[in-house]
Structures are given as structure tokens and as C-alpha cells.
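Q: I'm writing a short explainer about TM2 domain-containing protein for a general audience and would like to include a description of its predicted shape. Could you first generate the structure from this sequence?
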Amino acid sequence: MHNKQDLTLTELMVLNSELKSAEKSTAIAYLMLLGGHLGLHRFYLKRPGTGALQLVLFLLSVVFYFVLSVGAALESDAIIIASTILLILPALALFIWVIVDLFLLPGMLREYNAGVEQDIVQEILRHRHMEQLAGRGRREESL
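A: Of course. Here's the predicted structure. Afterward I'll give you a sentence or two in plain language.
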């Protein structure tokens, strides 16, 4: 694992420049949390599995809401009771999950941005190594 301390001043400037465009914004992540029932904030932070699960829970809630509406229109007690229970379960799970994500979001952002920074540092050091190898090859050719 490489550190920022291994970089030269020029390489640090490149790192900061690259980080500005690659880092995820806290403000945008919290704005997307407003659409948390759709899992937007999780897709934004490259967590598609849990984002898709939140989206599925939301869609299940919507489907059972419409089933409840149909049951109410048909005045069917069995449909109303079953769809109410099936509506409440995914909706409540999603509600609790989004509230928990409200507190987990800063940590998820730090983790994502630290990973991006580490990837960029590795790429800069890989580039430095390639330049050193190319410089060595030129010196050997001149001898």
C-alpha cells in the first residue's frame, strides 16, 4: 500500500487535480438521500447491489399499495389485510434503512474517496516507475 508521502510535489499537485474530479461530494450524496427510497445515494457511491435492493423494496411497496387500492375498491377484506401487511413490511424496512443510511453516509463517502485516492496514488507511482525504466533504457542506448 502506497502513501501520499511517497509523492513528489508535482505528483501531489497531479493527485489533488485528479481527486477534485473523481471524489464524490457530500452535498450531492445527501441530496440523493432525499431520494433514498430509490437507492440513488448508493448507486452514486458505486454500491449497486444495495442500491438495487432499496429500489426493489420501493417497487414492492408501490405494487402492494396499488393492490391495496384495488382491494379497497372491490371491498375485499382478505385483499385489504394481505396487501396492507405486504405493503408495510418492505416500506418499513426501507424507511429504517434510509434513516440508518443518514448516519452511515459520511463513512461511506470517506471510504469511497479514500479508495479513489489510493487508486490515483498507485497510478502516479506506476507512471513514475515507467518513466524511470524508460530513462534507464535511453541511458543504456547512449552508451
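A: For your explainer, you could say: The mean pLDDT is 88.
Q: Perfect, that's easy to follow.
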